[in-house]
């Protein structure tokens, strides 16, 4: 099995992005999996273009994009990407679209097709805080989740895809107040657990994992 | 203009639901609007059935469903409902579906069609904390938002629809720790501002209102 | 019984201070209580000077100072004031002492002598979120609590004293993210309940109200 | 220099206490420091008795007690211990005093005498989230901070003392919602930085580190 993992470059005034930092450190993954990593720019259109090119050249079985979610307390397995850009801040190219569709011919939303409940369960069994999230926001992270699933829907129907949000690193919250963080080692381990779960799970499990609101 | 407002009955161990309490108190609304209110049961299937019947009999121009979002800090204008039930707790009929579709023939998601950005702006101008939310959860609130937009899509194409989440009332957080609340008066005023905004807004405005994650 | 209530003027970039706003609105208080109100400047030294002058002229039986605690979720009955100024921001006179004593000849700390547990209990019975707090911070609020109890200890041994922190008003959190608030009506009612409790309580009650950390 | 570090045993339904776990893992400390570690029971009276015995036998230059502060986001250098027990839950011996003094002949409060501002600064320089805290709560952690400083005041005037609160470990928050955590490696490193700072700091620095409320 070939898994493509993407992470983003730093944005929003940060000098580091934990998503790509953790991906680079992955070593201890499932023996039957080949892991390919790729850094994506935090730029709406270009991120999708680079992802499309990478999917075409790598031809993975699974693609999992990852990104930084400052303010989150745990590893968040995103359930759905929506056809919307509503940029709170400019992307790394200075572009700040408001209430625009990502693809005019795309569905309203696409659900992730990696086994998010099984991954959350396995992460927790390994002592790593994790949960299912029902929004990836409206910035570049949602854009790449939606974009990945759109590309899969249109061009790569055999690929499974998903997105994972990770908290700030401890060093990123030093000058912030009451901001949760997670160590790079824990995030990296979470990704290793995710790879193993994807490699060994045919169908997602039914576990309680929703939210009231 | 005829606006149908729905609220839910209490659930999750609460003895009151601020959504319907506030709807009942609305008095000071825009003179050109006729407001019809309806309490819905916090039951997945039945809530949609009651809503469908009410839409058929009331024939409103606009339907806004409202619900309690314990833990939220402000009035949340929901942007999208998704085709998923993942019940963290049983509904008021003891039913707790996990990872099921709401309608097999429905889209992945439907976007709200009320002017959420304009409403948020007007609420803030009136001193009421408000924001756009990109997830209504996976419980009955999301179910009725999705259900309303599904019904509109299939049967009532001329109706505009949306959903608003409101925080706990102060009396509901007395035995909870660090839980935000909002007074019934403020929530009621928020609804009155919303009605006025819907009555006077043809097309939503473009204002920054997204989230990074 | 004569109760002196003080509130502060706005500080920290705010245009309003809910503490003094609420005090001004108190009308429905216990018939046997005479309520005198006074606005204090958010200035370390001057606040204590004005308080001292007011205590001398008013000769109250009880003094309760109140202040704004942005970020708090409920009405906080402060338990203790400490002999320390560690100003995170300048006061309204531009003064920003760091790690200085308030009074060189004062105790390390003084405990409040109003019935904080009874007040919390009564507020909750009236549907108002309230709790005991074990820190009033290290800015002007702690300074006036400590100062009041110091003055009582040194000059006015028959006066009982305390301090109450109140959350932001809704209108103050409109441009803040995930910031709790409380309506002016609820804060005012809380003060009225406090006055009644002080007027009718000889000795504080023993109720669980501590914190683990 | 001889530093005594204490941690607590698990309490409040937890099966592990990060404070003592981290202390046990300290290896990389300043060469001129001898580190002695001791586990204290989470029992009001006994914790102080064991600490007193340990101070008498170890005769350290510095004592730093540490404890778990579930809900905190960073390493908290406690500034002050207060003469009060107000137990929210029973201690590990089933004792739950409410609003009682720790020592009848003790001061209202004692300030820590380790260089808390310098320690916070050094931790942050090492990428570790840290801050000064103005309350250690009213449970056993505050009790041992107050008790340590009381014993120092009465019997061991040459010893410097303080207290550090640490967040939950990641594995402790798996079944909690939106609860911050910190890895054992980061907490251990924080303690190593603290030891080095204490060993090399004669007088604390003046840095902004207070709170508004």
What does this entry look like structurally?
- The structure is a homotetramer of 213-residue chains.
- Chain A contains 5 helices and 8 strands, in the order E-H-E-H-E-E-E-E-H-E-H-E-H.
- With 213 residues, chain A is of the alpha/beta class.
- In chain A, the strands form 2 sheets. In chain A, strands 2-1-3-8-4-7 form a 6-stranded mixed β-sheet, with helices on both faces. A two-stranded antiparallel sheet of chain A has the order 5-6.
- Chains in contact: A-B, A-D, B-C, C-D.
- Chain A binds chain B through residues 12, 67-72, 79-80, 82, 84-89, 96, 98-99, 107-111, 117, 132, 134-139, 141, 165, 204, 206-213, and chain B through 12, 67-72, 79-80, 82, 84-89, 96, 98-99, 107-111, 117, 132, 134-139, 141, 165, 204, 206-213.
Low-confidence stretches of chain A: none
The number of domains of chain A: 1
Sheet with most strands of chain A: 6 strands, mixed
Query: Beta fraction of the residues of chain A?
Result: 15-25%
Oligomeric state as shown: homotetramer
- Roughly how many Å is the radius of gyration of chain A? 16 Å
- Could you tell me the mean pLDDT of chain A? 98
Shape of chain A: globular
Topology record:
The structure is a homotetramer of 213-residue chains.
Chain A: E1 2-8, H1 18-25, E2 34-40, H2 44-58, E3 62-68, E4 75-78, E5 80-82, E6 109-111, H3 116-125, E7 130-133, H4 140-154, E8 160-166, H5 184-200
Parallel strand pairs in A: 1-2, 1-3, 3-8, 4-7
Antiparallel strand pairs in A: 4-8, 5-6
Sum this structure up briefly.
With 213 residues, chain A is an alpha/beta fold.
């Amino acid at each position: 099995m070939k898994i493509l993992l993407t992470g983003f470059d730093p944005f929003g005034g940060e000098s580091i992005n934990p998503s790509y930092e953790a991906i680079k450190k992955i070593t201890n993954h499932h023996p039957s999996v080949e892991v390919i990593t790729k850094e994506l720019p935090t730029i709406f259109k270009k991120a999708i273009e680079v992802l499309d090119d990478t999917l075409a050249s790598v031809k993975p079985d699974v693609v999992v994009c990852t990104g930084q979610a400052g303010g989150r307390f745990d590893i968040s397995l995103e359930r759905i990407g929506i056809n919307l850009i509503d940029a709170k801040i400019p992307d790394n190219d200075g572009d700040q679209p408001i209430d625009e569709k990502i693809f005019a011919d795309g569905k309203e939303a696409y659900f992730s097709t990696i086994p998010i409940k099984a991954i959350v369960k396995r992460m927790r069994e390994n002592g790593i805080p994790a949960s299912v999230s029902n929004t990836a926001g409206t910035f570049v992270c949602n854009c790449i989740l939606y974009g990945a699933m759109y590309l899969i829907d249109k061009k790569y129907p055999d690929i499974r895809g998903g997105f994972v949000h990770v908290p700030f690193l401890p060093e990123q919250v030093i000058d912030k107040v009451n901001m949760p963080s997670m160590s790079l080692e824990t995030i990296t381990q979470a990704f290793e657990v995710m790879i193993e779960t994807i490699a060994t799970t045919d169908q997602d499990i039914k576990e309680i994992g929703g939210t009231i609101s």
